[in-house]
Amino acid sequence: MENFNLPKVPDNVSENFKTICTIMSTLCKEKLNEEYFQLSIELAGKLARKRPSPFLSGATKTWAAGIIHALGTVNFLFDKSQSPHMTSRNLCEWFDLGQSTISSKSKSIREMFKIHQMDAKWCLPSKMIDHPMVCLVAFNGCIVDVRTAPYEMKVAAYEAGVIPYIPEEK
Questions:
Q1: Sign, Cα dihedral of 9, 61, 19, 42
Q2: Which stretches of the chain are assigned E, i.e. beta strand?
Q3: In whole angstroms, what is the distance from residue 159 CA to residue 139 CA?
Q4: Torsion on CA atoms 22, 83, 46, 90, rounded to nearest 10
Q5: Which CATH superfamily is domain 11-119 in?
Q6: Could you read off the pLDDT of 10-42 as tens digits, one per residue?
Q7: Of 71, 90, 148, 165, which has the most beta carbons under 10 Å away?
Q8: In the chain, what are the domain boundaries?
Q9: pTM surpassing 0.90?
């Protein structure tokens, strides 16, 4: 996470974008992981490229917190049975922001991009194979959970890009 490559964003928001990414890098290194960081950079890039970019107003720390909270909502970050795990309270303390501030920013981000809980687009890659909706495929007119399908079907689903890897080979 130290020397990260950032996507291209408009010049008028590039400084705010870099600051937001640096904040998220520090949090992910201390409390989360590389996957959260990569997804957070992707979401921050989308926000930076939005016209007009919401990064032109508001504190960079609040945007960073909102991005992490939005992704945490999708990936069950606040569920203690998950790994990585961080309570909402710990997230607020880390950013030194109030719950309502972070939740409000997170909600506006999720609404902006129609992000919902269990949204496969924003799911951590390591959690993709456990995602109940991602593994459902149509086969001969029937919906099948590819995780319980024969090996040949798993290979076909992998080759079609439906699943990120073949479970038996991971």
A1: negative
A2: 136-139, 142-145
A3: 15
A4: -60
A5: Cyclin-like (1.10.472.10)
A6: 999 999 999 999 999 999 999 999 999 999 999
A7: 71
A8: 11-119, 135-169
A9: no
